[in-house]
Amino acid sequence: MSLIRRREISLALAAIGGIIMISDYFINVKAIKDIAAMLQSWGVILAIFCIFLSTGNLVIYHVQRLSRQTKEERGWSGLVLLVMSLFVGTYLAGRQDLFNILFNAIYLPINQAIYGIIGFFLITASYRAFKVRSLEASLLLVSGCAVILKNAPIGSWLWEGVIPIGTWFNEVGGLGGNRGFVIAAALGAFSIGIRVLMGLQKGFAGEAGGGE
Q1: Phi-psi region of 49 (alpha: psi -120 to 50; beta: other; left: phi over 0)
Q2: pLDDT of residue 135
Q3: pLDDT tens digits, 156-189
Q4: Which of 7, 79, 187, 195 could cross-link 200 (Cys pair, CB 3.0–4.6 Å)?
Q5: What is residue 182's predicted lDDT score, i.e. its pLDDT?
Q6: How far is it, in rounded angstroms, from Cα 31 to Cα 28?
Q7: What is the percent of the chain where pLDDT is above 70?
């Protein structure tokens, strides 16, 4: 196997880049900061090329998919909207009015329709989740009803005490659970970073399994 294609090259580059970026945050050395700034510029350039590559891959995939379908099954709306958005954003960048028309007349109505569909799904999911079968389900039912009534206009009309109860669940109970998720995600990201720096995380290098 060629030296350029060996996975150790990818692992070494990832480890060196990570060490430089971490050192830039904690160490005030001009040479390290210059290298880190250069790496960040390279990252932006690579991200732009990745966007163009993914867009071209998306167009090729949809064209091939549409070519295999019959005339009655073909739907060109997604591909047409993608090309239209790219054209307006690239060649008509100075025409903000056209972009606003596309955003307000197409994107916002579609977004609102999707949220409306998700709303019906949330209602059915809440009905299934609020079935009292255990102590945990009872606590979920009480806290969910308190938060819903606190945010609904009818809640204060039914009982004024539901406002501080719903506020407590939002600002104390919900915030504590959210902090738990954030801490767990931070620890996971930290462990993945350590594995990358040590060369144990090999998924990005093309090895199946992603690590040892």
Answers
A1: alpha
A2: 77
A3: 777 778 888 888 888 887 888 888 899 999 999 8
A4: 195
A5: 92
A6: 9
A7: 82
Distance between CA atoms of residues 205 and 6, nearest Å: 9
SS (H, E, C) the chain: CCHHHCHHHHHHHHHHHHHHHHHHHHCCCHHHHHHHHHHHHHHHHHHHHHHHHHHHHHHHHHHHHHHHCCCCCCCCHHHHHHHHHHHHHHHCCCCHHHHHHHHHHHHHHHHHHHHHHHHHHHHHHHHHHCCCCCHHHHHHHHHHHHHHHHHCHHHHHHCCCHHHHHHHHHHHHHHHHHHHHHHHHHHHHHHHHHHHHCCCECHHHCCCCCEC
For the chain, which residues make up each domain, given as ranges?
Answer: 130-201
* Distance separating the N- and C-terminal Cα atoms of the chain: 22
| Alpha carbons within 13 A on the beta-carbon side of 74 | 13
Provide the pLDDT for residue 22. Answer: 85
